[in-house]
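To the structural biology subgroup,

Please find below the input and predicted structure for Class I SAM-dependent methyltransferase, which we are adding to the shared reference set this quarter. The sequence is reproduced verbatim from the submission form. If anyone notices a discrepancy with their own records, reply to this email rather than editing the shared folder directly, so we keep one authoritative version.
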Amino acid sequence: MAALRPAYRSELATGTDRFFASRRTVCPWCSSARLTIRLRTTDLLQHKPGRFVLDRCADCGHVFQNPQLTTEGLEFYYRDFYDGLGERRMSGAFGGRTAMYRARAETMLPYAPAPRTWLDVGTGHGHFCGTARAVLPGTVFDGLDFTDGVELAAREGRVDHAYRGAFPDLAPELTARYDVVSMFHYLEHSTDPDRELRAAHATVRPGGHLLIEVPDPESRYARLLGRWWLPWLQPQHLHFMPVANLRRRLTELGFTVIAEQHAAPHDPVDLLAAVWLFLDHTAPREDAPWLAEPPGAFRRVLRTVLLLAGIPALVTATLLDRIAVRPLSHRLRLSNAYRLVARRD
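Predicted structure (tokenized):
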């Protein structure tokens, strides 16, 4: 951290304004000018400086970051989250979710029980592909991502072939190559979701399938928990699409939506994450290279004391998430994600 601190200090010396594009005056999904502010927040995970605003379109319900991060801003806020300082932590977090990855792969069994080729877009370190092989042993799994995590996935044998770069830029060389293309919590990170969907249409062979999972902005948790709702994930998540919007756009592109799921993709962590985000926000910061100075001994002890005091709340939230809410998440409209399976006509 000491080695990284001077570079971060230099980069932040002129503030964060250059990390943001101009503010939009119309909805990027339907071009309506009826926009209202949905949320104001800060970076609650890395605690990098900056303030972020999500707007909501009153006509179509699309929620989007406004102003949106520029390419330079995205590079700054992603840095040391999935790679660098954060690589080991995130690899451990994603690597331990085997049951979730199996369930995602099993989603396709009724519609494509034996796909020959599968491309996972936004694959990260490839943990989904590594687990999905046990469900579909005869399938070739390729991964695509713009970070070096996809190259790590290839070295570890989780993907058969790694594509590094932007999906729309790589799509022409992948035309009609895949029986299944998956996008698990990928579209919300993209600067232009419509361009990504067109790339997916080009990449899926006729009769093949597109599998999409994204946060659900219509979840009641989004309103009840406010800025502490983890799927807002600012500043990384740029777009939140209501399910009706995404279904309609897929149909316009030449897909037929054959399955819509809300209960299955729900990840029962909302209350736990909200409590943790609040505790972490309230306690003194742990050391990070974008802080001007490392925290002193008193602040480190105070942080430890406050987090230990929050353990009962964390345990209670975990029990509520997994035992009380999970079985009723869809009925109560608390599901934090939805999943669509679409067939290319």
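Summary notes: The mean pLDDT is 95. Residues 311-325 form the longest helix (15 residues).

Regards,
Lab coordination
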